[in-house]
Design a protein that fits this description.
Substrate Binding Domain Of Dnak, Chain:A, Domain 2; elongated; 524 residues; mainly alpha; PX Domain
């Protein structure tokens, strides 16, 4: 079982059996988004009950609006689909998506020396609206290598765990490098990818776009290359171990059914890629053997005694070779389109499957945080029962409880945000997949029509007998057609007559002598 996040041997939090394998002890990066204010030192009294009451009142006064909304919403169950209020609280990017926009247009695919086959140069223009982090609105003639696009793609995966990041299409090596078909395939694939990224408001509003646009040509380096220590995205052995555990109870029924379906699509897409790959190799071998057979037929030209038959074999050999090449090009083009589609489908479903796994890890981490908060509540209750009061232990226990509460609320907010975003994107991806299937069938049909037209054009331009040599034959055919039309016309005229009248007239003309001659004549 593979993972979307690579294994990092230098990661200190890589032991799945450590005490903090599920829970991070440092909740600050997430909790600061909800309540960035520090906790005041309010516990100076020696009476524990009064101090606890005072701390509770201060926490209620210092809570931010987002945290208050979070408290009121986390008590309730998840909605089947996010409403306007949910978007406003958990997904402000989608709530305000009409206020900003990022557009990218792939202009050209350029050569990059010996690396063109796997690392071409991409030239594109960009337009930005409603985002203040950019220095200007229009960027022209930006050049980035394919490796830089890969680095940007990895950054989006690591830092947008709540979204289904579209997979970056691979470079197609079925066509010769820089051929029109190769350029069209690479350009269309990258254009489709940037359109999907820009249509996602969370990805489009990412600040990494600013770095990607503002850097000079071929100097882009992502600001972050792996998940942080406080991220719930497990890597390496830790991730593989956590995957073996039983899945937590999912409150969202739609996503609970969505992951098995995506996994099934992913496995079937992988099988289709393997089958089409084998078929492509078989078609190339078949074309090679056909060429050998046709070259063997060319030797029959020497066995003919007449020049006309020798010329006939020569023209036939030329036409059949051209047909074989056209059939190979047609097959490779169709298989490359289908193979690229299933490769992209497999990569997309893998990313979606791993994103849903990250959500399960977040749910498990939230459950562990809830247990930690519960234990710290029990610790404070034990301190209340003690006869001797220790102010230092009391302060430490209350601070730990406050951190646990903040961490739990932050994880709950992140879970609601991730769940609602994935519910929306699950519908969007199924719609995109349906449109991609329709587009694939349309491309295949149009390609077949073009190839058949080329074959007909080849037959017209490479006829075995030319028009000049066929003039006499055409005259004979015209005469036969004329006579055939006259005979048909006569038959229609005779068919219009009354058959009973013609039969009676024939009988009246027959005498005894003619009847005897008809009876004696042979009829076979």
């Amino acid at each position: 079982m593979t993972s979307a996040v690579p294994y990092e041997p230098e990661d200190f939090d890589n032991n799945p059996f450590a005490e903090s394998s599920v829970i991070d002890n440092d909740p600050m990066p997430v909790s600061q988004l909800i309540n960035p204010e520090p906790v005041d030192e309010l516990y100076q009294s020696t009476k524990l009950e009064a101090d606890t009451t005072k701390e509770t009142q201060n926490n209620q006064q210092e809570s931010s609006p987002i945290e208050a909304n979070n408290e009121s919403n986390t008590d309730n169950n998840l909605n089947d689909y996010p409403n306007e209020n949910d978007l406003k609280i958990y997904l402000p990017e989608r709530y305000n998506k009409s206020k900003f926009r990022v557009l990218i247009k792939i202009v050209e695919i350029e050569e990059s020396g010996n690396q063109t086959s796997y690392n071409p140069t991409v030239k594109f223009n960009a337009k930005v609206q409603g985002l203040k982090s950019f220095r200007k609105e229009i960027y022209r003639d930006l050049r980035r290598s394919y490796r830089e696009f890969e680095a940007f793609y990895k950054y989006l995966i690591y830092n947008n765990v709540e979204t289904f990041v579209p997979s970056l299409p691979n470079i197609n090596n079925l066509f010769s490098v820089m051929s029109p078909e190769w350029v069209r395939c690479v350009q269309n694939g990258l254009q489709d990818w940037v359109n999907r990224v820009c249509n996602n408001p969370i990805l489009a509003k990412n600040r990494e776009f600013t770095i990607f646009f503002e850097h000079a040509d071929f100097t882009y380096v992502p600001s972050k290359t792996k998940p942080g220590s406080s991220s719930h995205v497990a890597t390496g052995i830790k991730r593989k171990t956590l995957k073996q555990f039983k899945l937590p109870e999912d409150p969202c029924e739609k996503l609970a059914k969505y992951r098995p379906m995506i996994k099934e699509i992913y496995l079937n897409a992988q099988k289709m890629v393997e089958k089409y790959d084998r078929q492509l190799k078989t078609e190339r071998q078949s074309s090679y053997y056909n060429n050998e057979f046709i070259s063997g037929l060319s030797s029959l030209e020497k066995l003919e005694s007449t020049q006309e038959m020798a010329r006939l074999w020569k023209i036939f050999n030329k036409n059949i070779l051209t047909f074989n090449e056209m059939e190979l090009v047609n097959t490779v083009s169709l298989l490359s389109e289908t193979l690229s589609f299933y490769q992209l489908l497999s990569a997309d479903c893998y990313n979606i499957k791993e994103s849903l796994t990250n959500r399960h890890l977040l749910m498990r981490e939230l459950a562990a945080a809830h247990e930690t908060t519960k234990k710290r509540h029990q610790t404070i209750n034990k301190l209340k029962v003690k006869s001797s009061i220790e102010p230092l232990k009391i302060d430490e226990a209350v601070k730990l409880l406050d951190e646990s509460n903040k961490h739990e609320k932050a994880l709950s907010y992140q879970l609601f945000r991730t769940t609602y975003e994935m519910i929306i994107e699950s519908d969007e991806y199924m719609s995109y997949l349906s449109n991609r299937f329709k587009k694939l069938y349309k491309i295949i049909a149009q390609h077949r029509i073009r190839q058949e037209k080329k074959k007909l054009n080849l037959l017209l331009n490479n006829r075995i007998v030319t028009i000049k040599e066929n003039i006499k034959q055409n005259d004979v055919v015209d005469d036969l057609q004329l006579k055939g039309n006259e005979f048909k016309h006569q038959r229609t005229l005779s068919g219009n007559e009354d058959p009973s009248k013609s039969f009676t007239e024939e009988l009246s003309k027959v005498d005894a002598k003619s009847a005897a001659s008809l009876l004696c004549s042979t009829t076979f």
